[in-house]
Fold each of these.
Amino acid sequence: MPKTESTASATDTLAELASLKAQVEQLGERIEVQGAVQFEIAKLLQTFHGQLQALPSQVNEIVKKAVEENAQDKIPLTREVLTRLDHRLTQLAVNGHTVKQVSQMTLRRLGPATQKIRCVFIVQSIPMWDALADVYSAMTHDDRYHPMVVSIDNSQLGRAEFTGEDEVHEGLNALNIPHIRLNMQSYDALDVLRNLMPDVVFRQQQWDSPVPHGLRTLEITFARICVVPYGMGVLANPNATDPSEEAYPDNYDQQYHRLAWKVFCETEMTQSYYRSFAHSDPDKFVLSGYPKLNKLMEAKGKGEWPIPEPNGRTFRVIWAPHHSLAVNGYGFGVFHKIYEQMLAWARSAKDIQFVLKPHPALAFGAEESGLFRNGAYQHYLDAWSALPNCTICEGTYGELFDASDLMITDGVSFLHEYHLFEKPLIFIDSGVHAPFNALGRLAERAGHRVETFNQLRQVALDYKDGKPWKLVKEREELLQVLLPRTEPAASIILDSIAADIKISRS
């Protein structure tokens, strides 16, 4: 009996259903196997963790017994014996590190049983959030991704106490960003992070010391680390004797960079710096452009000035001091040299409004310098804020930049970021700061450089009175380097991650 069209269609449908059933069964088996493997790895790590916790007391008992027996002349407690003990403990630590890394790499290869790419953003600072904001936002509108945010404590410059999660939490709430609070012991926080089962993790800084121990580089390699710098790397290697040596390891070759799965580079120049160390696969350094600059440019035309102007538009100045006060003959910051003069100028200049935009670490830097004791820095902030034409702004700043007329800074990041808004920038040079690399020198040339407060004040007044900006060409050269791609950086980053994760899952 010949097949009719409907019979053939039914046969095809049954074949497709059978094929689909087989695929589902294979997927189920794969998930079951992954679950079993992950369970065994978790048990291994739990056992290993228990053994490590018990190790200090065991070592104490061994040493105590050895000392007691030595006191009874039973055995000699020599340097050789202690050296051998130290060697064994060191070997044990190395073995433990190896087991942990192998286990984490295995977990990373298995990944969660979901098609969406799970990304976790570890947030320690709201002022740094602009570097990742567009990446996170793009993921929330992309069906390929499941983004999550966690808030953590941090240590200013890696030397202060671990605090600040509450401020990050409040800042994320203000930005309407859902997040998980990791305001807990750092290894408990690590357990929560692992349970989120991220494919990818973003942290805000390459530095480990400001981050709680449980969230440092070696602890988070169970996920693919992706790097988007929190600020442009514009400093040169201080030991360089030739331009070819100016790539600074602190900016481009830390452990975090070496163990990262992908590093998204702001410019061709920074991409070449990363690759110059030859410690990683060069293909992982992706020229994406800098999402922070895209985020800042979104603020154009949306300026918000924080000081009321009841008598009409005033001249608006941002003063952005750096934290590295040059009190010992080295540093960018000149706050300690000009802060009294700035306050006096602000008191007398009724037709100028001033916004103090301090580096997030300036409070710590001022106190640590020894020049601002017994709350002197806070007293200064109070005196500044009491003036009707002055205020202090922290947090994100794109809208502030757009609303302003001029910036005064001795710092690093704003030296290139403010040029996006095509307004006068005065750079007050300490004369004793770390050397700039080629990118930093471009930014420095695009700003109006001064060396003293009197020069700073006069130049600002000149621009207030309508002096034209004469560094247009230098600014354009800088912006051509800063904006290497026409496509938004966040789009490039998302496509790069998705493409390579798809390959690894296939």
Amino acid sequence: MRVRANQDIRQYAKEKKVFLWEIGEALGINAFSITRRLRRELRAEEKERVMQIIDEIASREE
């Protein structure tokens, strides 16, 4: 079985109950664009930024 790119981001968002479209909105991009970006492995800096955004969104929803 093949591992999806950025599986760590996808799993983290799922655990925090944050939708990908919410991440896209926070980044100022279309919901479909975030899905396309996640098809290829992100650089470490980009991953860190996305993880921060997930944390921000999750903290607002608590």
Amino acid sequence: MKTNKITCIEIFIFISVTLSAQLKVLNNGKIGLRSTTSNYGDIQINIGDGDNVGLCIFKTNWNEPALKIASDEWYTFLTDAKSTPQRGIGFMYGAVCVSEKDYIGEYGGALNIVQTNSNYYPMGLCVTTQSTDGLGIYSQHSSSTVNGTSIYSRVFRGTSLAFASGLGYSNYNFYVKGDGTAYTNGILITSDSTLKTNIRTIENPMQKIMKMRGVSYKYKDISENLINNEEVITNYPVDEKRDSKNRETTKIDIPKLEQSTLKQIADEDANLEHIGFLAQEIEKIIPDVVRTTVNGTKAIAYTDLIAILVEGMKEQQLTIESLNERISFLEKESQPQKSKVNAPNNTMIEANTLTYPVLEQNIPNPFNVSTAISYYLPSTITTAAIYIYDMNGAQLKCYPITEKGKSRLIIRGSEFPAGMYLYALITDGKVIDTKRMILTK
């Protein structure tokens, strides 16, 4: 009996000493496991390198680890251990990698998410917010002195979507393909007059339009479009037998990309031609609509060309109306008449043979956008100008004219407020004629 008591005491002393060496409760209440100190937290666990060391929380009804923290020389890895032992969250040099263990340190972000398997989760990152004025994702490049990129998206096929958004479920309202093509239901460009200054009407639009050359073309092949996703990231093989939980995961309804449709898009991109302009040519004609891109190539602001086309059409319409007037006059002149009176101020100018100046009535009249004033100057005239006056006789504007023979002056409605005006042709200090024009708004 005495021998048994001695043996029990020895065992108790051995266990106490052993526990004291592995688990240390300090006087300040802190705990050290495999450590005699706890300088870095209330509970400090000293672990070595390897997969089966560290902290493990074991799930008895699954008969597998539910959560495990392991470490090696370079990183610390958090995983649910048995079902997906190679997938989890890794920490290395201040960066976080949500991916497979092998990808830790392979990417240069402070946060790296690499999704190599979509059996459970089809997305690398899902952010949902329901708060008032909430933001799902906010990105900022905070330097005001150094250029940078706030968000960058990379794909490896021209038909892959680098960015997409939808209203509700199962649709794409806006998306950008890997080749840079953007698709949208509509676009609005800020054009409020209160945000603009130095506003001027476009001059000589038809001259610019006549120099422009429309072309059809194809873009050069980009080798990146031929890279398959499988060649970039190899899917991690999954053993379904290892999934002892057999659980179902709630998935967000992402609009499905039909492969047949993507193939049709790729075929169209490869075979159909584009229609447009060459930026280097347009830059010589209208430099204001050409910009340099970040990769050094040139781009055209096609929407800016709309204003030039509109002004050109208006100028062309004035020419058409003037020609119609002349055709009508010639048709009337060609008909037999009992008498014909030479009245240059009331008829169209027929030829460059007159020896005196002529001022015609503006067309159209009244007008609200622009009107044309035709005139004739013989070669003997030294100085000439068309003056605009209000109905009180105050001079508003002077348009010097130097072109001899038949010509015309375009008056823009934007230059004056609505009202009735007088315009006069004065040559070599003499008033040749004065007429009225009406501007409406």
Amino acid sequence: MLNVVLRWLPRSAAATMKYLDEYRDPGAASRYVDAIAALVRQKWTLMEVCGGQTHAIVRYGLHELLPSQVEIVHGPGCPVCVTPAERISRALDLARRPNVILCSFGDMLRVPAGDADLLRVRAEGGDVRVVYSPLDALQIATQHPDRDVVFFAVGFETTAPAIAMTVQQAARLALPNFSVLVSHVRVPQALDALLSDPDNRVQGFLAAGHVNTIMGMAEYEPIARAYRVPIVATGFEPLDILQGVYMCLRQLEEGRAEVENQYTRAVRPAGNEAAITALQDVFEVVDRVWRGMGTIAASGLGLAAKYARFDADRRFDWTDVQVEEDSARCIAGSIMRGHSRPSDCAEFGAGCTPDHPLGAPMVSSEGACAAYFRYGVA
């Protein structure tokens, strides 16, 4: 942690900072803002790549505290929001089958694929169950040996280890009726895609600290070097984010492009080795479609051949239907690429609300549109 930053924190923070209110101290936040204002000499655009960070920024008005030269745009940091309609369409297909129990985290139930979502299919009689852990789905499979139980596995590298360990447990139990519909994505490849966009204007990233907690920092080094952008692994509380912004801007002002770690209380350079070992055992790297961004090479995880018997894509026969990603009136893709803000959308707050969403970022609790709506950002 920067020495200059440590001097700004409450007296208890440098030694024992362990309570949420210490990470939300208004006085320390004000001193961060003053330091950022004193540091910045030109205009910069930063992007956070985590829905939790997006909500913290909007909830606490951090974007309004920063000097006018600093703009923060919101990236594809919501895993629900980037799950493509094709994967959701397959989940809908499974949920409609009479012999299938589809298990999912609750935030996937209202994400649309065409004119349907899992909540509607459940209302029509599909057996869709909300679980809090993939292990819950495994337990359901043991309780219903006469039915196929499928877990809809969505998320970044953060949630993938739990899925990996669940698949390993299914293999140990030799469960014949359990499978996983995988839609996991990898963050570094998305950053590479954003930076290679000819219209890109992002000059520095606040990386999602929970992803770095799992994967470490090494994957970001080639990106920082290739595109000359600073990348700072950042936490989720107001002081975390302000410090991450300060560290990123200091690099830009000094002409540096390095990978730094703000979230030192959780992130280690090598990440979580046990989690990485599980990921490497269970998954293989695949190309993946990102909602609003298209296909990104090597940006996904799919089940490895040794676990093919648990792969719903291989287990079931499919008749895929072409489904539009989002309504033509929805600008979610532009928002997730940092080209627009939710409030730039003509439908925001009128034709698109959490009760009647046009796109995934208004549905998910981590979506940028939902954050703007919830906290009244116009």
